[in-house]
Design brief:
heterodimer, A: 333 residues, ABC transporter involved in vitamin B12 uptake, BtuC, B: 264 residues, Rossmann fold, four-stranded antiparallel beta sheet, 25% strand
């Protein structure tokens, strides 16, 4: 009567001893890669890290990629993706610009820009969730639509962000303000993903959508919310960048920044198939991309080569995550 | 088989009267009546498409019957939703177990019933420590042993996963437990562990249990009563002790033969 339900296919000894380490290992691995790359570039070119100018430069490459990656990670855990993020990035600052032109105070104009981005996210989410269109297709549609819309309302010409020196500095004009925003946003998103019901349910719904809904989780509402979060973050990033470079460009961001964000998420250990993911990993993934980009630029390797290296890095990260981690779980390594 | 069952046979834990369920032109349930007594195990047998799963889904509030009455603890009730059924103490373990593989055992056990700390709304933080402790306690209570409740469920065997799903169901004041093929795709040893668990839940916690089963011999071993469903109707119902695998097989074979002769 007391025969316990145990073993029969016990998890491997290693997995039992290090359950937390297995879960965190993808972050630790990618962090090691980031550190090794930094050391390499620092020895190859002593200006790489230890001058303020290049550190500032590095942080400014990492920041927008990392913030957008936070949103993409929330979606990718659920097996979704937002391809329109880069276009929302360009769209939101123009809404802010026009609101400001119309007489709104800067903070209100900024809010209007962010909300407009959120609206695009709401449309992405509603079409994907309620009309059951794959998010790849939905957001491919909004990618082109939002891009065309931004180009139309801007007539294709850049404008200046709203005036106000201290506000601009706070938002991104000061060298390090964008990376501080990034760290704050990543911290909030990490807590949301790991320590709230919203995040836990996002992971559960990604791992087993039917099971999660049988447990009473509102899977569709979660997905809708995550599309809005992803778009809000993309729009906010576009606004930060607009203040930083003191110019709002309809061609800014685009597919390049969106794919870099997805790459950062993937390198950081979030699989496209969903079911798991980490914000910290995405942050480190963005740092690795930034280090590669800055490092190779300083050494004097051109942008074409950088793309080849980036491509190889994404493939290597995915192959490693899928196969090595699976073997480690089975206890064969 | 169990003394508790005959002693408190007064009010049934659950009773269905003439339940019909139609999906458009298809009649999935064609007037099913059933009684689940307090603290007994009712085994529901039948082929694919006999209506077993539809019946379970009506009892969990996932579907609503087209006509017929349902009594929970003697009171007539229309189960509006899964949450409504749950609030009346009806819990179900689906065949797919509804576990999230990448999450830990304790997060799975508290899925959608998490314990949270007080705080302003979007940041009401999970109280992982309390959930971990309660999960370990609950597993201990029903005699399920795992190395650690921190393990992700993907690292568990089929039997352990089934046990976690059952533990989750009974973790929340369940009085009626519905199990959809709890022994499917399980080796003899693992099945034995789950059978022990089910019997313990009946004897120690006094749960009333409906199990959908495929294997006649296993069903007669565990269940107090068996019910055979064919084409949306209950065609046979008997105390498990007073029937046999041979008799059940005979009924199914007779039905099969009559279907073949009836077919053009």
């Amino acid at each position: 009567m007391t025969s316990p339900v145990t073993d029969a296919g016990k998890p491997s000894r290693r997995a039992r001893l290090w359950p937390g380490a297995i879960r965190r290992s993808s972050e630790i691995r990618i962090l090691a890669v980031a550190v090794i790359l930094s050391i390499y570039f620092e020895t190859a070119n002593h200006d790489f890290l230890l001058t303020s100018a290049s550190l500032e430069n590095l942080s400014q490459f990492i920041a927008p990629v990392a913030i957008i990656a936070c949103g993409e990670i929330m979606l990718m855990i659920g097996g979704e993706i937002d391809l329109s993020a880069g276009m929302v990035f360009a769209f939101a600052p123009f809404v802010m610009h026009f609101a400001s032109e119309a007489g709104a105070p800067t903070w209100l104009a900024l809010l209007a820009g962010v909300l407009a981005a959120g609206l695009v996210g709401l449309i992405n989410g509603a079409v994907t969730v309620y009309l059951r269109i794959p998010s790849f297709v939905t957001t491919l549609g909004t990618l082109f639509f939002v891009n065309g819309f931004t180009l139309t309302i801007s007539r294709g010409t850049p404008v200046s962000p709203p005036e106000g020196a201290s506000f601009s500095a706070f938002m991104g004009a000061w060298g390090y303000s964008e990376i501080i925003w990034t760290i704050a946003i990543a911290a909030v998103m990490h807590v949301l993903l790991r320590h709230t019901r919203w995040g836990l349910h996002t992971i559960a719904a990604g791992a087993n959508p039917l099971g999660a809904s049988e447990a009473g989780i509102q899977v569709r509402r979660l997905k809708l919310g995550n599309f809005v979060i992803a778009a809000l973050l993309a729009g906010f990033t576009g606004i930060l960048e607009g203040f930083r470079i003191t110019s709002i460009d309809p061609q800014a961001g685009g597919n390049q920044i969106m794919f870099l964000a997805v790459a950062a998420a993937v390198i950081g250990g979030t699989p496209l198939a969903g079911g798991s993911g980490t914000i910290i990993g995405g942050l480190i993934g963005a740092a690795v991309l930034g280090i590669l980009n800055d490092g190779f630029t300083l050494i004097g390797i051109n942008a074409f080569t950088f793309n080849m290296i980036l491509g190889a890095a994404i493939l290597a990260a995915m192959i490693f995550n899928i196969h090595v981690v699976r073997l480690a779980r089975k206890g064969d390594l | 088989m169990s003394a508790a069952a005959s002693a408190s046979a007064g009010t049934a834990a659950l009773r269905g009267e003439d339940i019909v369920k139609r999906f458009g032109a298809v009649t999935a349930l064609d007037g099913v009546s059933l009684t689940l007594r307090q603290g007994e195990i009712l085994g529901v047998l039948g082929d694919n498409g006999a209506g077993k799963s539809t019946l379970i889904k009506i009892l969990t509030g996932f579907h609503q019957q087209t006509s017929g009455k349902l009594f929970i603890g003697g009171e007539e009730t229309m189960l509006r939703s899964v949450d409504h059924a749950r609030s009346l103490g009806i819990e179900c373990v689906y065949q797919d177990l509804a576990l999230a593989n990448s999450l830990s055992i304790y997060h799975n056990m508290f899925l959608n019933r998490e314990i949270v700390r007080r705080g302003p709304f979007p940041f009401r933080l999970l109280n992982n420590r309390a959930m971990r402790a309660r999960a370990a306690e609950c597993l201990e209570e029903i005699g399920v042993h795992v190395p650690s409740v921190d393990l992700p469920v993907e690292q568990l065997s089929g039997g352990q996963r089934q046990a976690i799903a059952v533990a989750r169901a009974v973790n929340s004041d369940a009085r009626i437990l519905l199990l959809d093929e709890p022994l499917a795709a399980m080796g003899a040893r693992e099945a034995g562990l789950i059978i022990d668990l089910i019997l313990r839940l009946r004897d120690k916690q006094g749960l009333s249990i409906v199990m959908i089963m495929h294997n006649y011999a296993q069903t007669l071993d565990i269940a107090d009563r068996v019910m055979l469903m064919q084409r949306g109707r209950v065609t046979y119902e008997r105390e498990a002790a007073s029937t046999s695998v041979a008799e059940l097989m005979d009924i199914v074979r007779r039905e099969y033969r009559s279907m073949r002769t009836a077919a053009p």
